[in-house]
Design a protein that fits this description.
It contains 9 helices and no strands. By secondary structure, the chain is mainly α. The protein has a single domain (14-233), classed as Rhopdopsin 7-helix transmembrane proteins. The chain starts with a helix and ends in a 5-residue tail after the last helix. The protein has helices spanning 3-7, 28-51, 55-80, 85-113, 117-140, 146-158, 164-171, 173-195, 207-230.
């Protein structure tokens, strides 16, 4: 199954015209949800940068903030605007690419402010390297099998298992638990999206909308980690 079919509304077994719309908004629940998240990301990102006490900390926090804003703004526009066919495909690929950006951006303050020595640079290199591969796949081979992109996203997310011990030592177990919970929510959301389950209220709130709720919740958990446990380490 191509990635586009896995993630797009075409895969929903309900006629597109039968879905609830608000004016010209194609998917108002998704649009409003991620639009609100984008606004919160702007505010949270700025606050995170101001909270950091060093230049390096501010840059790392800024990368995370920009990653959140990029994903949620793109997703909100993609799911809200009635794009013409050619632009719908482009926006879908951009939307999927931003998932890789957010994952790598989430790693950035953790790697830069918590990890030390070579592990810091290896983590950043691997995270952004995988993100570049995923973005490249979306740009040049958008109809490759979905398993490839899903594997990349999952690998990126759970590579954090290899750095949990140093994170626990410097940031504490609470940070590790919140990171893991966020990762679990992302993963569960992906399972819902791939399996097209649960149906819930198909015309208004189904598995796709639930996926977006879980993504926002997971991002919130990771923001708390950055705010409470990571950025204060900048010194």
């Amino acid at each position: 199954m191509p990635l586009d079919d896995t993630f797009s509304v075409i895969s929903i077994p309900v006629d597109a015209e039968a879905r609830f719309k608000l004016g010209k908004m194609q998917h108002p629940v998704r649009g409003f949800l991620h639009g609100s998240a984008a606004i919160a990301a702007v505010v949270g990102g700025i606050a995170l940068v101001l909270r950091a006490s060093t230049v390096g900390g501010k840059i790392a926090a800024g990368v995370f903030g920009l990653g959140m804003v990029a994903l949620y703004t793109t997703s909100s526009l993609y799911h809200s605007v009635p794009w013409r066919e050619i632009w719908n495909g482009r926006m879908r690929r951009l939307d999927h690419s931003m998932i890789f950006v957010l994952i790598a951006a989430t790693y950035t303050p953790i790697a830069w402010l918590v990890l030390e020595g070579n592990l810091r640079f290896v983590t950043l290199g691997v995270a952004w390297g995988i993100a570049a591969i995923g973005i490249g796949q979306q740009g040049f081979f958008p109809r490759e099998e979905s398993n490839f992109s899903i594997a990349l996203m999952t690998t990126m997310g759970w590579l954090s298992l290899f750095i949990m011990i140093p994170i626990a030592r410097r940031a504490g177990m609470a940070a590790v638990v919140l990171m893991a919970l966020g990762g679990i929510l992302y993963t569960v959301g992906m399972v819902f999206l791939v399996t097209n389950r649960p149906k819930l209220w198909p015309r208004v709130f189904s598995y796709h909308e639930l996926f977006h709720v879980l993504v926002v919740t997971a991002t919130t958990m990771h923001f708390i980690v950055a705010w409470r446990y990571v950025v204060p380490l900048a010194a």
